[in-house]
Every structure is written in structure tokens, then in C-alpha cells.
Amino acid sequence: MIATARRMNASGLNQGTSGNLSQRVEDGFLLTPTGMDYDTLEPEDLVLMRWDGSHEGKRAPSSEWRIHRDLLARRPEVGAVLHAHSMFCTTLACLRRGIPSFHYMVTSAGGEDIRCAPYATFGTEELSHHAVEALEGRKACLLANHGMLAMGKNLAGAFKLAVEVETLAAMYWRALQVGEPVLLDAAEMARVIEKFKTYGQQPEPKG
């Protein structure tokens, strides 16, 4: 978890202490602490969260613990949740714009678009509710005037998707500087979603 948190900053996905990261464990989840520089983190700084909102450890949990708890509780296929204030996702989120079907790779987030959840104060139950709704049938979303969320089966998957979503946000932002991008229709996005079910799978070696 600490290595992934540091990669968030090193990759430019996050700045300072603004993001947070969780990973499912038995009877709860591990969460990065609030307000701590990732470069200084030690394993004992990670916070063990329980599903009832209680926590163990010497540090206070991230203020966004409710989002992590609610997503992990509702999505059994998800093993890790990443939240970042990445530059281009946050730029679009401040315009309260999601990412539409301007490129087929938008389907990497699970559907034909990447939604932008309505605004609510950080750390609140209301924000968590908005995030859960925006992620219905999706693996990533933007948070209005705030940032982005990405989920994966594990930390590597969540990080990979977050990088992809930030790249798409950058492409979309750049395209908007010229005009309104031409969008792919729902039928094409459905075809791409179907093709992605087997994308990148190598055949088993013979013999």
C-alpha cells in the first residue's frame, strides 16, 4: 500500500497528502492515514478500519474513510479503492463534466461514460452516497469540484485504472480546446465493452 501511495505522487496522479488509498483485508480494510506525507509512511501508520466505522492503530484515518468503507462493503469484487486529486480529472470535475464516449478506452472504467458525482463536502456521508451512485455499474468516476475515484480487484488494478482515467481526462480536455469531440454511439461502446472481456488474454502454452 505504501509503495502504491508513493507511486501516486511520483506519477503525478496526486500531489502532497490530498489523496487516499484502501485495501480490503479480513474483517475490514487498511486505509492511509489523514494528512501524512506518503514518503514518511511506515507500515504501522496504516489504519485498520472496521465496517462499523471504528478503527485501530496509532493514526487517524483519512477523512474520506466513508467512501472507502461504503464502496468496499457494496462491491464484493473490489479489493482496493484509490482517490486522487489528479490534474485533468479534477479540472473536468470543477466544470462538473464527466468523460463521455469520445474514445473507446472510456470503457476501461466499466461503461460507455465516466460519470461526475454531484458535489458534497469532503468526508461526509452525502459525498459517499453520491460516489456510490456514480459508480453504479462503473469502476471509476469523478467527484464534482474535488477529484477522482478508481477501483480494482487489487492495488495494482486500481492504480492502473486511475492512470488510464487521468489520461482520458487529459485527452478530453485537450480536445475541448479545439471544439466538441465527436462521440462514439452506444452500439459501438457496447461492442468495445464486449471485446474488452477477452482483451489481453494470452492462450495457454501448448505442451
From TrEMBL:
The answer, when asked if Metal-binding is one of the entry's keywords, is yes
Task: Please state every residue range assigned to the domain named Class II aldolase/adducin N-terminal.
Answer: 1-173
For this UniProt record, the keywords arranged alphabetically read as follows: Lyase, Metal-binding
Gene3D superfamilies, A to Z? Class II aldolase/adducin N-terminal domain (3.40.225.10)
Q: What SMART domains would the database entry show?
A: Aldolase_II
Recorded superkingdom: Bacteria
Matching entries from Pfam families are given as: Aldolase_II
State what protein this is by name: Class II aldolase/adducin family protein
Q: Which organism is it from?
A: Archangium lansingense
